Amino acid sequence: MPQRFTGVLLCLMLVSAFAPRNQQSKNNKPGTKPSFGGAASTPDDRLKVGVIKDPFLLGCGCFLKFPDDFRLENDSDIFVADLDDGAQMNIDEKDIILKLVRREDPKGKIKVGSTRSEVYASGNIEVRVEYIVKKLCGPKDEECEGTLYSAKITVTRNGIGRKISALGVCNC
Questions:
Q1: In a domain, 132, yes or no
Q2: CA angle 86–91–92, rounded 5-degree value
Q3: N or C: lower Cβ tally within 10 Å for the chain?
């Protein structure tokens, strides 16, 4: 009987040693595993997209937010683009200025469902924004502040990518 008890106890110890735990990552998000030594970081630690700290654009342009922040009308842009060739994002807690590389405008008249895309770059970072028109201003709507878009933002650095959903307005 003592041998059987020792075997069961050993089995329980091994199972509990390898059982998943609610561990904390470097950014204190529960449920992600920490990295040790030279191991690759967790997906949550790579290409962290945040709110722009010091916006370079305050006038006309495109202003995208995380969907919840947009719905709550929080002042928390994650992507801004001027009407020329500049854009800005906060990546890994640093505000980055991006330059337009390529733009694909919709063909024909812009309507709900129309799509357009832009690609920006800065150093080894590439940002692709795919816009879909969700709402246009009516011809007599004086209170309308711009075209409402949903967007998919793909940030890539050194072959590692991250996709983010956003909502926002382009105006002027």
A1: yes
A2: 155
A3: N
